[in-house]
Fold DNA 3'-5' helicase.
Amino acid sequence: MSIKYSAEEIATRIKAVDPTFRFPTKEQIPIIQSELAPSVVIAGAGSGKTETMSQRVLFLVANSLIKPDQLLGLTFTRKSAGELSKRIKYRLRQLKSAKLLPENLDESELTVSTYHSYAGKVLADHAIRIGLDADADPIGEAAAWQIAFEEVSRFAGNDLPINGSPKSVVAEVMDLSTALAENDRTAAEIIEYTHKLLNHISNFSDRQTIPVLEFKEELNQRLAILPIVAAFDERRREHGLLTFNDHMSIAARLVKESKDKHNDDIGVIERSKYKVVLLDEYQDTSFNQIKFLSNLFGNNHPVTAVGDPNQAIYGWRSASSETLDTFAQSFNSKATRYTLLTTWRNDKSILDLANVMIDSISTQENVDKLSARSNAQIGEVGCGIYETQAQEANAIAEYFSKYWFDKNRQASPVNEKTTFAVLVRNRSQIDQIQSALLDLGIPTDIPGVGGLIHTPEISDIVALLRSLTMPDSGTALMRLLTGPHIALGAKDLMALGAFTKSFAKSNEYSRGKQLKQALEENIKVIETADEFASGSIIESLEQLLTLTPSEFSNYHSTPKFSSEGLERLRRFSLALRSLRRSLTGSITEAINEAEQFLSLDSEVLVRDGWQNGRRNLDRFLDEAARFEKNGGTLISFLQWLKVAEEAEGGLKPAEVDVRSDAVQILTIHAAKGAEWDYVAIPGLADRNFPSIGKKSDNWISNAGSIPVTLRGDFEQLPAINFEKISDNKNLKKALEGFDDQWKARKLTEERRLAYVAITRAKQGLLCTTSHFRSGNKPVDPSQLFEIFATATKDIEGASIISETDVPDGINPLKENPRTASWPSPNHNIERLRKVADLTNQSSIMKIEEQLSTTNNDEQKSILFDMQAIINEIKGKEKYLKVVLPTRLSVSTLLYLAKEPQELALRIRRPMPNHIDKYARRGTEFHLWLENHFNHPSLISMDELFNQSLQAVDLQSDAPLEKLQSSWLASEWAAKTPADIEFGFETMIDGILIRGRIDAVYKLGNDKYEVVDWKTGKVKSGDDLETAAIQLAMYRLAYSKLKSVPIENISAAFHYVADNQTVRPADIMNQEQLKALISKVPIEI
């Protein structure tokens, strides 16, 4: 390799044009000047790998070893790729200024991207050979979740032996799909392996213990889910809805096929384009990524893999910590190993603690340790044990406050202010810590979707949307009732609860009755039991509006509503009803409606100012827009948010932009790659951090994981040799042994996660826990906390700042809950109230007069804005006109006659219909009757979806057995119908009416009678007159379709339970039916 300029000479020339440029160190120079050959760089946290890689590129370009467009740099996030690209381009421009490169050299052709983006590009260039359209952008995790949810819902009606809620099954489907893609496996391969394994262990004759039975249960669960996974993957492939993992998997397979069958033609093309390849964060690469890259750039192509084995924290997605050690083997290359261990980020005390963690992670005697830069300060590390989580949160807030409000910091420009972060292992800790910081006047920021949901304004919007669209979301409604919008007091909340229970006990549509029915009829219950048992407070709100005073008094329990509380609830219920009408647009429109309804735009501006007030709202709208782009609905968006809210490390971490205007609170996984001046790591309690997780990714206990022996990195993982096991006793022993090995491996990964958290801090680090967590009993500090606390004895600048003894008794927060005034006082709101009072006391302004008298442009602008706002409010108060759809069922005609306003609301805002046991019993009777006549069962979709419209007709239905015996005793049992379940579609005044006639009997020559079976009470008066519209429609339809004069067709209701036939007089003719339909458009 011919060298014209050394790394030091290049640095000297750049230093002349940029005095801030730092000369490369003795560690960096060998890496910068290394041969064009494979190499591995072990780069510790904060060791300046980005600068080292950029100087490596400068060296290669300055010495004409490569051109900028012959470099390929790959990393994991767009942010990291952007930073590396920006740094290299900046340094290349400096080389031009230093006259080491020609002015016409184009540095913009540099290729630095993410691993997935590069795989997608290769796939797009060559996918035609496998008949795949790879031009479409990959779908995100939210879009994939939508499809998985739809597939699980589609399979739910099948007889698959699946355990768990739909949400947990969706998670397992997505996990299995990802695992198949990451490891280049198919569902068929897993099914075949599992059947063989089950056949083998089912032959064991000795007693089965619980671990063996649970293992078999997981195997069968995986078998049940795999058909859904196959359908999920096939649907996405058919419609071009590929994920990033799909792109990588298909690209890896394509490149391997090219190498094996087509003379490595893809590899030849890519290697000719890129003479040098840089692989950043290599420790996080998965099996498929390594397979893809090694088949392209193996066999001693100049590839530099850079990474830190101590930051390998993605083992659950097939990213093994051993990848750096096996690089040479994977790429079939002779690789030189370099180390980059001087950290430019951390002060000494933090660095010393990081080295303690390296010792606890490594099993080697001579492990690579981090070393401090020459000008590093001592820094500080504090460890504290507190009594409760609340005290722990307050301690973190107080620790930050002394640096946040430091006078020097306050006087510094934004880009020079110190930064702060709280890195949590469990999102459940976020609320208390955020509240403690806000109490001290310190703003907070929670990056990512999961964190965003925890902010007050977004929580309110989500609660409102769930209350509007999910009738069983009582817990969401409670947030609104107790919040500032309604501010319902404790007594009225108790009254609402008592009313709900009272109404539920006596009303057949209640949640509790549905639960009882579900249990009696063995119907799988998906909703939460607490909402079933107590009734639905959302239903109760509606009842507060619709019940008459006498009806309401029947359900009035103790305590009673206050007059003000009842008035607020009724006003709120009316407002909700109005808001439901407007939720007909997109997800983002629904969010905007909710925001305006809750007056959040004003509230957040008052709270945080015009610069930051809308920050969370706008971010939430961006997330909704992305979800909507992939065809998502409001319901599926709300379900997805629930998943995002509960996920800890499973969702793709957000790319974090470090900010100095707020304390950022985020998970440790999301913090990787970022750095802050001051960092707190809370929750270092047993089973919390290190985390045992809600569900392990251990394949023997998690149906969402694939067997270890089918993973691409199986050689680096513990395994069970089932062929050597011949009985259940040894199978139990092997399963328990594997479980222990897997737990040990996960514990090591948790320690690496702790190392990542520690090395995010530059100047100060606070590590905390509390004796009492969320339960009653005290919880021991975790192994990690004990390691940290012990290390403080030998680390300069480290100390134990709080060491509370384990208290007696139960959790003080459980025994003596914290009390406060409700709602809590808000000084900003008080000021606003004063302004509002002054406004109310002022005289009414006539905007037109003011406009005519002022010449001030600013005043005119304000007046015009005021007029526009007033006009907008007036516009919202106008009635809406609802037009009938072009297709109607006969049931809808009945609704149109009896309750046109309610029908208009249903058309304006369709909601899921309730189908109760009476509707089901009526359907069962019709099915029985069809079988009696040996007629095939034909229940129309219109009947199923309009049964709730007929609910009033179904009250007091008799049991099925009584209906059967009564009908058999009637005059109709001896007659033979001419038609049964006669379906029809006919036009009236441009509207298509569709329905199904129960039975038609021939009375004589060209004379007929249509009969509708009724399983409810006999009707009379106005009720009979309305119901007769149904018979009028049946007569007209049969007349048209059979060409029978309408006067030759009579019509009757037969009330089965009472064995009474009623033939209404004055049935509507065609003109009268047209007049009924002409009632619309309806104003609401």
Summary: Residues 728-758 form the longest helix (31 residues). The chain is about 50% helix and 10% strand.
